[in-house]
Amino acid sequence: MNDSTPMHDSRVDLAIIGAGPAGLAAAITASGLGLTVSVLDEGRRPGGQIYRGIEDAPARGEQWMTLLGEDYARGLDLVKRFRASTAQYRPEHSVFDIAPDGGLGILGPDGAHWIEAERVLVATGAMERPVPLPGWTLPGVMGAGAAQTLLKSSALVPGARTVIAGSGPLVYLVARQMQTGGANLVAVLDTTPRANYRRAAPLLARAMLAGNEIRKGLAWRREVKKATPLFRTGVRNVHVEGVDAVEAVSFETGGGRGRVDCELVLLHEGIVPNTQLAMAAEADHDYDELQACWRPRLDAFGRSSAPGILVAGDGGGIAGADLAVEAGHLAALAVAADLERISHAEAVERGAAARAAIERKSALRRFLDTLYRPRDEVLAPSHDDTLVCRCEEVTAGELRQIAAMGCSGPNQAKAFTRCGMGPCQGRMCGLTAAAVLARAGGRSMAEVGHLRIRPPIKPITVGELAALDGVGPPPDAGPLLPTAPDEGTD
Amino acid sequence: MFKRLHDLRTPVSFEFEGETVTAEDGDTVAAALLAHGVRHVRDAVVSGRPRAPYCMIGACFECLVEIDGRPNRQACLTPVRAGMAVRRQSVAGGTPDGGAQ
Ligand SMILES: Cc1cc2nc3c(=O)[nH]c(=O)nc-3n(C[C@H](O)[C@@H](O)[C@H](O)COP(=O)(O)OP(=O)(O)OC[C@H]3O[C@@H](n4cnc5c(N)ncnc54)[C@H](O)[C@@H]3O)c2cc1C
Ligand code: FES
To answer: How much is the pTM?
Structure first.
């Protein structure tokens, strides 16, 4: 396998965006079937979110592997098989544009290029669900997964007094990893709604049969509970307090309000698909009520409604790393069949085991999605002064005001308030803004719709665009990202 | 706020707002700043309030900094390089002549 040699892969059978479990598995299968493959990832090393830093991990010693756990260590084999494949790998390359004909705009350390592919696989994974609550923009507040990213990639653990507040499987995994690493975790505030336990209970028995994930999760939880001075469940109304940085967290439980001094707050309310590129490609998306997020409409092999564009892994709906591998494999088979390297019958046959694996885990997924469905307060914050759009600083109250004026959805809200017009292009506010407007207007998420995403989806200068080499559509001459105060070149 | 579990093996030094920061080779700029105790990485564009990295995976754009005069660099995706000059970003879209984003 070759690390990026500029322009060698300017035309390939399959371009894969994302070197996480889904993208790596797809690259291994597709290159094994003789397809020319290029894998683009904005990270430095393969592995994606779950296996971030995995190639550097063995050199950090056995203790390090124990700290991160056996699920993490399993990524090593996948990454090795990818490295041994003929797929070309371009680390530190962000995909900022996706054209209907398979053209991709990519930006790397050596500037911007266009590459062309017969098929494109979007394997961009998930991001942590934004958790809009009072004080969440203060320095010292970040995602639990964000702190875990610092651990996996740079061996950093929180040194200050730290509180984890949230819900979902990642909460206890991260808490346990941090405690093993010697973090000063002063409180764990579990926000899983009590009512969810009742709803999920009937699904438990079948979910337990689908694998040992639940037992593992319960074990982590027991360990964390034992090691944490303040452990609370059924937590609501979390507020982060502070002037220029975090000073404390206050919260509510059945027993009244509590408060704990801290310097670092790690929030987590599950993860949601990173749909930016699939939306930019104008693939159809549906709102998934149970997972409370948008997901691209896909066939069983990952083909989206946009011609030539497939999606695999958590970017197509949250299913976890193991199923991301299966989905990546299926997508590669679909591409090989569509490009007539194998027959469709062969694709179905070779994909049977992956399809069965996905089916086997569906009971577990349903249980987890039911148990960890975020409370309404997370989806549509009730405090009027809570910031929804971090970039342009638009509050929930302002959104409710424009809803009362007849604003019909997040695209119109942009014009009213600039919500979603900042550099993150609605990644952080899109779901929340739609939920606030839906709630205020008594409509469903499907009715209010999602933000339209327009390339470029990454910051790029006019100079970089002007220097574009390779083939492909000429870029628009207009302002590149909506926040741009001017259109100067560098 | 964060501490390193390992001693630096391949130290790399760069500047943040004129101050020298030493990081591990392979760290992102955001990781290096957080390990150095920096809490204020950019200013919010409307209120001017201090902000800091939130997602660490390129989604939130709270880590936007100016690197070697170029605005709108995502510190959580940019590896440190010896001698780079990093500055807090305090204007939407960067300095007036620093390019649209
Ligand atoms: C912060 C975080 C931490 C997580 N940690 C764990 C964990 O410890 N254990 C666990 O079981 N699950 C974890 N998950 C869940 C995660 O979604 C896994 O299920 C798994 O990593 C999903 O695999 P994937 O291949 O679908 O995508 P990912 O692993 O997310 O990989 C997607 C890749 O796409 C790249 N990418 C995204 N957009 C672009 C672009 N525009 N241009 C170029 N590259 C791009 C990213 O850099 C990334 O490497 C985590 C999720 C997050 C968000
Ligand atoms: S910290 Fe979120 S984009 Fe860098």
So the answer is: 0.94
pLDDT score recorded for residue B52: 98
Alpha helix positions (H), A155-281: 169-180, 194-200, 204-209, 213-227, 276-280
Domains along the sequence of chain B with CATH: 11-88 (3.10.20.440)
Same domain, A85 and A181: no
Q: Is residue A239 part of a domain?
A: yes
CB A135 within 8 Å of CB A259: no
Tell whether A352 is covered by a domain.
Answer: no
Residues A166, A86, single domain; the answer is: no
Q: Which atom of ligand 1 is nearest to the CA of A143?
A: 1
- Give the one of B5, B50, B61 whose C-beta lies nearest to A155's C-beta: B5
Question: Do strands B85-88 and B64-67 pair parallel, antiparallel, or not at all (unpaired)?
Answer: antiparallel
Residue A487 lies in a domain: no
What token pair was written down for A15?
């371009």
Task: Write down the mean pLDDT value for chain A.
Answer: 92
CA–centroid distance, B2 to ligand 2, in Å, is 17
**Chain A closest CA to B20's CA: distance in Å?**
19
Shared-domain flag, residues A333 and A429: no
Q: What is the ipTM of this complex?
A: 0.93
The parent domain of residue A429 ranges over: 380-448
Q: Taking CB atoms and an 8 Å limit, are B50 and A274 in contact across chains?
A: no
Which chain A residues contact residue B91 at CB under 8 A?
485
Higher per-residue pLDDT: A465 or A105: A105
Q: Cα(B73) to centroid of ligand 2, in Å?
A: 10
Distance between CA atoms of B65 and B41, rounded to whole angstroms?
A: 7
From A488, A476, A475, select the one nearest A113 (Cα to Cα). A475
Taking the Cβ of residue A486 and every Cβ of chain B, the question of whether any pair is shorter than 8 Å is answered with: yes
Separation of CA A476 and ligand 1 centre (Å): 30
